[in-house]
């Protein structure tokens, strides 16, 4: 059934996956639409963002963020519309970015909600280029990666919500940018549309050699969000004083075992090459005063000038969110994955 | 035989060790004392510094520094005296710190040589507290570790040339300092003489539990120079936003295999706890304009005020350098290890 005025559809965590998530780990339910009390407003979702970090929330392993309880709604950011309000600052029709989860309706008292900036090119961009993924790319690359003109920057998941922005900003900083992506079409897009200097299809069996050929002067910045065999190919090519901002390990999220033999050489590599490897989560950067506003302003200027391109992969219907999310972890999306709910 | 005016004793690399070095990897030779040509001066060593990094130079594995060739003199820093000079800037009797290696005599044209500061408390201190080890402690702790008041700093090899200085500077910055050392006597010294808050004997079989007890608020800075089981005990205790300056892996230098199972969790730990792990070698910091002078000035003030204590372990005679060096890698020294040659 489509979105309705009287029923709240929601997708809950039915059970915890041990490896890759499967349909049985999710369950679609219907409940009543809640009614806002004093100081509250009711949000109806237009767009739901799907992101790799959600796999971590399905697990109860210790992490930086609370996990989703069994039978609770899957967490997630949405662009939603205020449809009823008893809150003085929010009026019917306001567009809001909020963490209302995988469902049609949610109440809010304003906590964690942000009204969409009037300069947002499209509402759904608040979930990607101008939201957490774009900010992740910006902060991780510039604050930790610190790319300098003429350096070589390698980015995995090169056409994804984060990687595509990392690569384009690095190009703007005068770097040689080498992407890694799954399939010839994505690689073509990275080079021809995003302006990367090269892009390597990791599905080929000669990733290490291809990467070596594409990085004749080694690698100065590796933006790490996938782990696995891509990191294996990158590690031997890292230059002295390389920086490795680390914001995700997608390949490990679904149970791909890390390569222990390779990782046993990691401290020795960090030492002899004086490499800085630093994990970060974007929530920390939201706490840094003025930093998101700085990002928003700079990104707006780049987009207005046609210097940053952005692609969305829009899936229709809340009921298709689980399948789309499973595909995301396998790299099946092409561009920032969002679910159009309304 | 002792140091002589007519014979140059030198210790060369006889063969490359695969694990711990042994006597057969070194050879004591005698050669003629060289004669300085125009623009050169002749140095005679008073003190030779022995440091863990030298184990790396005995190997021909790729590294940041050139290895010692077979039959070549072992590299090392010395405090030496000018005994003949055809160089306008160096006069007979000048005390110089230079990398003249494990031998009595060497020629220099001034490259890499530094006249000893007049304020040096003792000449041999130029090889330790006021030299590479002290500067390593200072730069690694302050530039990478960035300890803040009230944080917990853990340092291995706590009574060594680097560790003892790291811990004392961290105390000056208002941190809780927990050392790790080999044996009750060193631990007593770390607490009673150096002022550490606690020190754990890693020879006990319950290092992980003892460390946990000594760090009730977790670990914010771990100054890594040993690797091995100490790092295994530290890793689970690292706090969110911990910093790990990494300047050595002594336990691995002599063939202790890294724990692959543990290290396979390293990227995940760096990510979820947003840890910064950064390798460094002190030679890079010598290139930073004014930084060594800043260190020298600040350290001089601390020593003059009695705020930093320093202990040397002085071995007599060049011929005993190999045995002393083997002991160093096993933690048998107590304080900065130097060989008095003259």
TrEMBL record, chains A, B:
Residue span(s) of domain Enoyl reductase (ER): 19-339
InterPro entries: ADH-like_C, ADH_N_2, ER, GroES-like_sf, MDR_fam, NAD(P)-bd_dom_sf
Keywords: Oxidoreductase
Cited Pfam families: ADH_N_2 (PF16884), ADH_zinc_N (PF00107)
Keyword Oxidoreductase part of the UniProt annotation: yes
Keyword Transmembrane among record annotations: no
Source species, domain of life: Bacteria
Protein name, UniProt field: 2-alkenal reductase
Species, as recorded: Herbaspirillum hiltneri N3
